[in-house]
From TrEMBL:
This is Reticulon-4 receptor-like 2. It is a lipid-anchor. Keywords: Cell membrane, Cell projection, Glycoprotein, Leucine-rich repeat, Lipoprotein, Membrane, Receptor, Repeat, Signal, Transmembrane, Transmembrane helix. Residues 268-318 form the LRRCT domain. Residues 37-71 form the LRRNT domain. Residues 1-37 form the signal peptide. Coiled coil: none annotated. The chain crosses the membrane at residues 440-458. GO terms for cellular component: cell projection; membrane raft; perikaryon; plasma membrane. The keyword Thylakoid does not apply. Belongs to the Nogo receptor family. PANTHER family: ANTIGEN BSP, PUTATIVE-RELATED (PTHR24369), CHAOPTIN-RELATED (PTHR24369:SF210).
């Protein structure tokens, strides 16, 4: 009896073991083969697990997408909404471009914890996004939202997207960029914002983008760039600002882009008066690949390239004080310029020259710390303020070789070169000396009269 019980127990144990083995084999082999039961109108591929439902006129995200799908292609359909329960699978690549998406519910992608690429481009009806639309996508590396007619972006739209490297926002209808909009995107390397309607770049628009390599802002309506707008972009190598409405660009903004290699600024109405000096000085030190910068004003410089203006072209302009970020002005001229003026006295008086400098300061108040920017339609009407005076026109011309030979040769003091000081300076010195002697004689005479009077009164 004991032997029979042992045999029964052994056979039962073997049966259970065999059943478990078959169950494991079914889970491993039969279950994945069930992927052949794809969602209707879709095609599935096993390695890597891919579900392709493109160009099927779908109006909603199809149900029954396998949970282990790594790539899901839903592009070129007519899907209108993305709800929080639309995606319940582990996927790395999700394409939804070319649909009719009008609304994305907050948290619609929150279950896609391993998603690396999301393409929502070419959805022309997607004009608004919820603040938490991309919540949970902490491993997302590439986000496409081009040509969606987005007019504004919520301030927390990119919150905690620490892994994002590529962000495509071109050809929308963005009018402005909120401060700190990209502050969490510490690993972003490519930012495409061209083809929008952006009018100004504020101080904190790009704060936090410490690893940004290329920034495309061309084909916008930018008139103003804050002088500290690029302060975190020390690793930027490519900057496109062409085809905007820029009349000037702060030199401080460009000095912050220490690694810049390729710069395109053409297609802007550059004003080449005193306000252009900071940018011109930056170009003198920067050795980069750059487009041309054709001057629109003043009329005497129209058609010239701002980069190749001469130091003497800015001889009568106030310079920003190098010790002040606020831009306090001082009238420092180069040694060569001062010597030329000492030998060629301008016809206008010093009072008129001071008045001209005052007017220039009003038109371009560097001391205010925030340079004024001219609207595109006002450049012609105000161009008379930047016309060259007779003194400026009379300045000697320098050949390129002579210009670069004197590169950086500036001195705040007036010096005599080769004993060629103007005779007017000696005359001024003689006049000043005689004036001092006369004043001293009058003081001595007055003191003597007072002493004599006191002596008469008090004996």
């Amino acid at each position: 009896m004991g032997i029979r019980r042992t045999m029964k127990s052994s056979s039962a144990h073997n049966f259970k073991s065999g059943l478990s083995l078959w169950l494991i084999l079914w889970l491993v082999v039969v279950k994945p083969s069930g992927v052949t039961a794809c969602p209707r109108l879709c095609v599935c591929y096993p390695t890597p697990m891919t579900v392709s439902c493109q160009s099927q006129n779908l109006t909603i995200v199809p149900a029954g997408v396998p949970y282990d799908s790594q790539r899901v292609f839903l592009q070129n359909n007519r899907i209108t909404e993305l709800r929080a329960d639309s995606f319940g699978f582990e996927t790395q690549v999700l394409w939804l471009y070319g649909n009719n998406i009008t609304w994305i519910e907050a948290g619609a992608f929150s279950n896609l914890r391993v998603l690396e690429e999301l393409d929502l481009g070419d959805n022309p009806l997607l004009r608004r996004l919820e603040g938490g639309a991309f919540r949970g996508l902490e491993k997302l590396q590439s986000l496409h939202m081009h040509r969606c007619k987005l007019a504004a972006l919520p301030h927390d739209l990119f919150r905690k997207l620490y892994s994002l490297q590529f962000l495509y926002l071109q050809e929308n209808q963005l009018h402005f960029l909120q401060d700190d909009l990209f502050s969490d995107l510490v690993n972003l390397t490519h930012l495409f914002l061209h083809g929008n309607r952006i009018r100004a770049v504020s101080e904190n628009a790009f704060r936090g983008l410490v690893n940004l390599d290329r920034l495309l802002l061309h084909d916008n309506r930018i008139r103003q760039v804050n002088r500290r707008a690029f302060r975190d972009l020390g690793r930027l190598t490519i900057l496109y600002l062409f085809n905007n409405s820029l009349a000037e660009l702060p030199g401080q903004a460009m000095r912050d882009t220490q690694g810049i290699q390729f710069l395109r600024l053409n297609g802007n109405p550059w004003s080449c008066g005193c306000e252009a000096r900071p940018l011109w000085e930056w170009f003198r030190k920067a050795r980069i690949s750059s487009s041309d910068l054709m001057c629109s004003s003043p009329s005497q410089r129209r058609g010239q390239d701002l980069r190749f203006l001469r130091e003497l072209d800015f001889a009568l302009c106030p310079l920003p004080d190098p010790g002040s970020l606020a831009g306090t002005t001082t009238t420092t001229f180069s040694t060569k310029t001062r010597w030329w003026f000492s030998k060629n006295k301008p016809v206008s008086s010093s009072k008129a020259l001071h008045q001209k400098n005052s007017e220039t300061g009003k038109a371009f108040p560097f001391s205010a710390g925030k340079p004024q920017y001219l609207p595109k339609n006002a450049i012609e009407s105000l161009s008379s303020k930047y016309e060259l005076s007779e003194d400026e026109v009379a300045l000697p011309k320098l050949e390129p070789e002579e210009y670069w030979a004197n590169y950086g040769n500036e001195d705040a003091s007036i010096r005599c070169l080769d004993l060629e000081c103007s005779s007017d300076d000696n005359t001024a010195f003689s006049t000043s000396s005689s004036s001092v002697i006369t004043t001293s004689f009058l003081h001595l005479l007055t003191f003597s009269i007072i002493t004599f009077s006191l002596h008469l009164l008090f004996g």
